[in-house]
Amino acid sequence: MRKEFFGNNLEDALNKASQRLGITVQDIKFKVLEGKFSRPFQNEKVVIVVDFDDNQETSKGYKQSQEEILARKKGDDDWARYFINEIFSRMGIQAETTVEKEVDQVVLKVKILNEEINLRRGGFRELRGAIQNLVNRTLSQKGENIKNYIVDLGGNLEARKKEIKNLAEQLIKSVVSKEKTVHIHLMDSLDRRIMHWALSENMGVETKGTGDKQFRILSVMPKK
Fold first, then answer.
1. Are 175 and 221 a contacting pair, CB within 8 Å?
2. What is the pTM (predicted TM-score) of this model?
3. Could you tell me the pLDDT band of residue 57, with boundaries at 50, 70 and 90?
4. Largest CB tally within 10 Å, which of 18, 75, 114, 168?
5. In CATH, what class is 66-155?
6. d(Cα 40, Cα 69) in Å, to the nearest integer?
7. Residue 46 and residue 18: Cα distance in Å, rounded?
């Protein structure tokens, strides 16, 4: 595989590649791109292209298992499924993950096999979002992932859709009747996405997102 790294000088670029890939500077195979690279009002950067083996043993002592290597070769969906199962395994939890493809996203359905675990606890709701974020961020680093992965933990996604759709209907009535904008705080990315979908079906309101990450606000306003 190949990846580009930017630095203030060659040493800086090599150190960044070493830290990101987990290999020593001496083991990096690279070439320096010719030309000048800079952003407005910034110093020129050195750019190197690094060739590396995605399956190689790193200087940190980590070596991929044959199961992980095989999952990576099969593609992003298989690797995401393996990745999630491995996270739960290290937590002492047995999980089975299946892949369900939709038009604009891929749903990773996670079934927990431990009967004693209660998925309705608040901690598992936070865990679902954290795992979903890890999957998307890890795959996006490859520069090839254009998919949007949704994690459905314990089959709660459909129930959550119905719950938020009911909330959306109440919001629509309030916004339309009072002709005032309603601002919704502290919703995770999945809930906001479902809310957007539910509200988009109504011609009387429109939505707008502002802010960043966990502080993002969803505004619902009367359509003009």
1. yes
2. 0.55
3. very low
4. 168
5. alpha beta
6. 41
7. 15
Tell me the backbone φ, ψ of residue 133, rounded to 5 degrees: -65, -40
Number of residues that make up the chain:
224
User: How far, in Å, CA of 28 to CA of 52, rounded?
Assistant: 7
The segment(s) of the chain belonging to CATH 3.30.300 are: 66-155
Query: Identity (one letter) of the amino acid at 22?
Result: G
What homologous superfamily does CATH list for 158-222?
R3H-like domain (3.30.1370.50)
Q: What per-residue confidence (pLDDT) applies to 85?
A: 92
Contacts of 154 (CB under 8 A, 6+ apart): 110, 111, 112, 119, 124
Q: Is the pLDDT of residue 98 over 90?
A: yes
pLDDT band at 38 (very low <50, low <70, confident <90, very high): low
Q: For residues 198 and 186, what is the distance between their CA atoms, to the nearest angstrom?
A: 18
Q: Give residues with Cβ within 8 angstroms of 36, minimum separation 6.
A: 44
Q: Which residue has the higher pLDDT, 159 or 145?
A: 159
CA dihedral sign, ordered 199, 140, 88, 97: positive
